[in-house]
Amino acid sequence: MDIKKLQAIVIDALEDVKAQDIKVFDTVHLTSLFDRIAVVSGTSNRQTKALAASVRDKVKENGGTILSIEGEDTGEWVLVDLGDMIVHIMQPAIRAYYRLEEIWGEKEIKLGAAKRVSQRTASEPQGAAPKKAAGRHLTTGASSGEDVAAKPARKTPARKVGAKTAATRTAATKTAAVKAPRKTAAAGQPAGKTVKVAKTKTAVVSAKAAAARKAPVKRAAPKKKAAE
């Protein structure tokens, strides 16, 4: 039996016989022997025995198992062992002396939540599987008996990581080239190499002619006449 259903049945059985100060604790983190402990008070020996009998009968009616019941002969402290849950039914003086809440009371379970579980399980037929809430895509047309298929998930286009990265790098390179300051030549230093261009033949002839015109003309000395 489910532990939540078991604890709800136990709480209902104890409340039917007017149990006082019902406390239920979660002990999963403390021991592997059982998952829940219930500690309740009965005002007399007769009430403690009646509480134990009510728990026993309720659990059996719902298909649970009773492993053992101890302390019924005196009625001061009756222990009902349900396997996954232990129920301690004690008179107030015995409960105040042993203080089981200080040992097992680290995680207390709220009785309101446990009772809601009890009401929900009681309304469902035994052996019925819990109903699952239908998705939004199945609600349309469900009342008319039509089977509505779930829409396939949309495929998102794969991103071109390589092309995008290359384009980004190219843009960054261009930006850096534009923003980079141009290097200016230092004063007194040539900006680049000087290339010598050969003169054409026409220029050479013209230069020689100009030089010949500027040079002084040497006149030849007159020849002496032969002796007569």
Structural features, described:
- Helices cover 41% and strands 13% of the residues.
- It is of the alpha+beta class and 228 residues long.
- It has a domain at 3-109: Beta Polymerase, domain 2.
- The chain has a six-stranded mixed beta sheet.
- A hairpin with a 6-residue loop joins strand 3 and strand 4.
- Helix 1 crosses helix 5 (111-123).
- The longest helix has 19 residues, at 161-179.
- It starts with a helix and ends in a 14-residue tail after the last helix.
Largest sheet: 6 strands, mixed
Strand content: 5-15%
Distance between the termini: 171 Å
Structural class: alpha+beta
Q: Poorly predicted ranges (pLDDT <50, ≥5 residues)?
A: 132-152, 156-166, 176-188
Helix content range:
40-55%
Radius of gyration: 55 Å
CATH class of the domain at 3-109: Alpha Beta
**Taking all residues together, what is the mean pLDDT?**
73
The total count of helices amounts to: 8
SS elements, strand count: 6
SSE topology sketch:
Blueprint (H helix, E strand, L loop, with lengths): L2 H14 L3 E7 L9 E6 L3 H17 L6 E3 L6 E5 L3 E6 L1 H7 L1 H5 L3 E2 L1 H13 L12 H4 L21 H19 L21 H14 L14
Parallel strand pairs: 2-5
Antiparallel strand pairs: 1-2, 1-6, 3-4, 4-5
Helix pairs in contact: 1-2, 1-5
Main features:
13% strand, alpha+beta, Beta Polymerase, domain 2, 8 helices, 228 residues
Brief summary of the model shown:
This protein has 228 residues and is an alpha+beta fold. It has helices at residues 3-16, 45-61, 92-98, 100-104, 111-123, 136-139, 161-179, 201-214; strands spanning 20-26, 36-41, 68-70, 77-81, 85-90, 108-109.
